[in-house]
Amino acid sequence: MGEAKWRKANDPLFGKVPQNARRRGLVVSPPMHIADDHIQIVSSHLDKQELRFALLFWDELVWPTSNMIRIEGGEDEQFLEHEGLLKRPRFTAWGHISKGLESVQFQAFEQLEAAEPGAWAMAQGERSFHLLGGSRLSDGNGVTVQLHRAIPIPSADVPLAEILEFKRRRNDELIKLRYHLEAIKDGVSNAEHSQEALLSGISAIDKS
């Protein structure tokens, strides 16, 4: 039996989701607010709600560290590192700590995205990396994360192991959902009035 026939017979996603759309990663951060030369590191842990959101929808999480500072995290982060789902690559940065930590987040994203184009996004917002005054990323990154946020997610007290077990049982459905969200993102990016298209997409997801 040829490879295509074997995959059709054995792969429930064959013809529905391309192979290169099945793995996705997210660059994460503890709550960290940066404005020019000012920085506020709100917590030394990844936000519990934000972490569960990220773990539900993405296959691999990357929390970069640097020569400037290493924020250790807690039990949740250690558990995910042990499971191989959270990576802590080290990057080099210089200058003021606010610019250095900003640089590290973007170095991680750009390096990962260059290796796997289209597979990576960066979490941004009040509960993660918050660059006040705008972002250096394309609008597509923000749209991807906003669409995922329109879906109900586990509360902060749900054990990580339960989320992983849920993903194991419903993996094919999660991949199809994520692929559908990315199709909506592409429609938003190509729309003449992108903000209206984004709100329409979020509303449709919410109703579903």
Provide keyphrases for this structure:
4-stranded parallel β-sheet, 8 helices, 208 residues, alpha/beta, 48% helix, 3-stranded mixed β-sheet
Briefly say what this structure is.
Helix content is 48%, strand content 12%. With 208 residues, the chain is an alpha/beta fold. α5 packs across α7 and α7 (171-190) packs antiparallel against α8 (194-207).
| Biggest sheet details | 4 strands, parallel
The beta-strand count equals: 9
Question: Radius of gyration in whole Å, from Cα?
Answer: 18 Å
Coarse morphology: globular
The mean pLDDT is 82
- The neighbouring-strand order within the major sheet is 6-4-1-8
User: How does the helix and strand content classify structurally?
Assistant: alpha/beta
Report low-confidence residues grouped into runs of 5 or more. none
- From the N-terminal CA to the C-terminal CA, the straight-line distance is 39 Å
- DSSP helix fraction: 40-55%
Q: Which series of helices and strands comes N to C? A: HEEEHEEHEEHEEHHHH
Number of helices: 8
Q: Into which percentage range does the β-strand content fall?
A: 5-15%
